[in-house]
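Practice problem 4.
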């Protein structure tokens, strides 16, 4: 029995992806409210890096859940083909 189902991993991945995407939209919104002017690079990167990291982790979690689910399905399938 798997420790976590594929659906839970996918939901977790999508949640992380959406959190990062929402954070990025918030950053663009802040930039819009400031008139699309110059921004402080240090302050901008302090927010942009975690947002992108969340999006990357979300995609990785979803892909990992799919891969683990495929491996689990192959492991429990009744008909295994061995290559000789």
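Answer key:
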């Amino acid at each position: 029995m798997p420790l976590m189902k594929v659906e839970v991993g996918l939901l977790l991945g999508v949640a992380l992806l959406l959190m990062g995407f929402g954070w990025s939209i918030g950053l663009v919104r802040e930039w819009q409210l400031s008139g699309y002017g110059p921004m402080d690079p240090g302050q901008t990167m302090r927010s942009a890096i975690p947002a992108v990291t969340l999006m990357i982790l979300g995609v990785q979690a979803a892909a990992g859940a799919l891969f683990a689910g495929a491996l689990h399905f192959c492991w429990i399938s009744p008909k295994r083909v061995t290559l000789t």
